[in-house]
């Protein structure tokens, strides 16, 4: 069974599920009193509430082939069970979580930004100029509560795991709390029941038969090119992606596949250029009109002066 995705705004709920799982295992190994179990759960809840992750390092998914394929799966599932429309993740939010952390102040956010910046040289050293293609293939789940797309196991995925471990050490060296000590399992979440409290009352689990036709489906490759420090709790961007505090960019990115940030930047430049051109045109037209007005006034004065001179000459005769 796959590990549980440890991302997004409902992590407290996911941690509770994980704690319940650990408690069940302990029950099998050793008999404990009801009071001890309750005290253990309360301590776990307090700890989780105090250190609940609220930021994460995101690897954004921007390849249209991948996002469109996942949307096709989502549509197919919704056609079979309309209620699950509330469980779907927006395509603009698709990402792979590299690392989660708890940042409790602006100072800690600044330290995390510095840690991400420091990570770039180490990531580039691991890449050694190579292009990393991350292949997304197959669908898996966690206890039928969360559905996600797997990364195919290959040398590139192994390299991604090395990068995640390296980044984790860099953040920990700066005393940034980086979540639980669990093995990194890269995945792309596309649906989860915990997105809606009302839905969880209606649907207890996601039937794997709903996506049976896509269990081994190849979704496409994402070229590794960017990591973002994102907030889980701040308002998302209009395109559905998370509020981003900082980013590092490296490697190659196919020119035919600009991401949302690049499109927004290009759009802004086009608008700025259009506005600048319009202002320049307006100033030129205004100046031309001013010159024409000045010229007309001068001609009128010259004509009036000439007429006066002729009148004076006639009088002198």
Automatic annotation (TrEMBL):
Places the protein is found: Cytoplasm; Nucleus
Q: Does the keyword Iron-sulfur apply?
A: no
Q: Which InterPro entries match?
A: AKAP7-like_phosphoesterase, AKAP7_isoform_gamma, AKAP7_RI-RII-bd_dom, Cyclic_Pdiesterase
SUBUNIT field: Binds cAMP-dependent protein kinase (PKA). Interacts with PRKCA; only the cytoplasmic form is capable of interacting with PRKCA.
Which spans of this chain does the record mark as coiled coil?
Answer: none
What is the scientific name of the source organism? Lamprotornis superbus
GO terms, molecular function: kinase activity; protein kinase A regulatory subunit binding
| Major place of residence | cytoplasm
**Domain of life, per the record?**
Eukaryota
Q: What is this protein called?
A: A-kinase anchor protein 7 isoform gamma
Keyword Nucleus on entry: yes
């Amino acid at each position: 069974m796959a590990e549980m995705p440890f991302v997004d705004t409902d992590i407290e709920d996911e941690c509770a599920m994980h704690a319940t799982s650990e408690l069940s295992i302990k029950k099998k190994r050793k008999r404990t009193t009801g009071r001890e179990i309750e005290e253990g759960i309360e301590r776990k809840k307090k700890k989780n509430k105090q250190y609940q992750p609220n930021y994460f390092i995101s690897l954004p998914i921007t390849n249209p082939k991948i996002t469109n394929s996942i949307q096709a799966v989502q549509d197919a599932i919704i056609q079979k069970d309309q209620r699950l429309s509330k469980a779907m993740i927006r395509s603009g939010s698709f990402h792979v979580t590299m690392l989660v952390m708890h940042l409790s102040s602006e100072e800690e956010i600044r330290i995390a930004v510095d840690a991400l910046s420091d990570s770039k040289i180490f990531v580039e050293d691991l890449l050694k100029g190579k292009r990393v293609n991350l292949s997304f293939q197959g669908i898996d789940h966690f206890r039928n509560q969360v559905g996600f797309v797997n990364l195919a196991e290959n040398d590139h995925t192994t390299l991604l795991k090395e990068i995640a471990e390296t980044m984790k050490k860099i953040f920990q060296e700066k005393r940034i709390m980086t979540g639980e000590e669990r093995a990194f399992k890269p995945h792309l979440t596309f649906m989860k029941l915990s997105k809606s409290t009302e839905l969880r009352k209606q649907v207890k689990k996601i039937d794997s038969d709903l996506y049976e036709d896509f269990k081994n489906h190849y979704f496409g490759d994402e070229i590794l090119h960017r990591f973002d420090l994102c907030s889980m709790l701040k308002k998302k961007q209009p395109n559905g992606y998370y509020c981003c505090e900082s980013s590092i960019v490296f490697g190659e990115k196919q020119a035919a596949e600009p991401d949302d940030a690049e499109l927004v930047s290009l759009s802004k430049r086009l608008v700025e250029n259009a506005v600048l051109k319009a202002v320049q045109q307006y100033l030129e037209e205004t100046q031309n009109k001013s010159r024409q007005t000045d010229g007309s006034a001068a001609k009128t004065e010259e004509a009036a002066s000439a007429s006066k001179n002729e009148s004076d000459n006639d009088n002198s005769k």
